[in-house]
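Class prep. Write one:
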Amino acid sequence: MSRRGKKKGRPVSGWVVLDKPVGMGSTDAVSKVKWLFQADKAGHAGTLDPLASGMLPIALGEATKTVPYVMDGAKIYRFAVAWGEERSTDDLEGPVTQRSDLRPDEAAIRALLPSYTGVIMQTPPQFSAVKIAGARAYDLARDGESVEIPPREVEIGRFDLIGWDAAGRTLFEIECGKGTYVRSLARDLGRDLGCFGHIGELRRMEVEPFAVDELVTIEELEAARAPADAEEEAVDHDRYTAIDAYLVETAAALDCLPQVAVTDDAASRIRLGNAVIVRGRDAPVEAAEACATARGRLVAIGAIEAGMFKPKRVFAG
């Protein structure tokens, strides 16, 4: 008997701006979305802890080539800090390691926030994906090892105290750059205030360049995908019309780059690796990085030198 080959996914491309629920890991969310779209390739732009909710941009197909640009985008988080306890994971998941009966007042908290704004040095949590001698810090921590994680520069553009909840936790909102650990902020604030603290709730509100109105839930995606025929052997593309409507164009991830519109003929030449002359009154003459589009669809990322667009990474038409 001949062996049945592995079913190949669809060559679908674009971004799914998922509203990840609490309790689901980022890898599990990517796997679920990949399965729902029957995509041949998927990845995400920035891990969210299982206990966190909110915006998790997931790239499908050709959009995976643009993940680094979204990773570099600014992010907005809203979170609650519970005072009086420090935990091994810096959130609700881990056991308590330090306790205090002290509670900070509003004036003390506000006085501290300026020192957490701008470019600061931050030590990632013990339970983090940072690599130490080739191993993930969270793997070492789960094995009971306490490791020295070097501090690193992160940038926080805005750090606002927005109130308190019914449980007495302090609510904050920050806008920050790549690599910022919100759990570390809760830990360090608690230490500086002399009362200890950990994250009690965390939601990622935005990831640049995506907007809140582009968020979609797992339930909405499940409802949009038509049920499969139990005897189906080939992918029926008509089944995916409704769910594909939730995709955001791959090019949306590259809003940070100069945009160059090219003709269909130029697009064909670019996809073959050829340089083309950049035309148009507003077209840049020089750019270390830019993207070319044809009829609004992404063609390539490349450099513009002496009025020529030179492709570095091309995208399927």
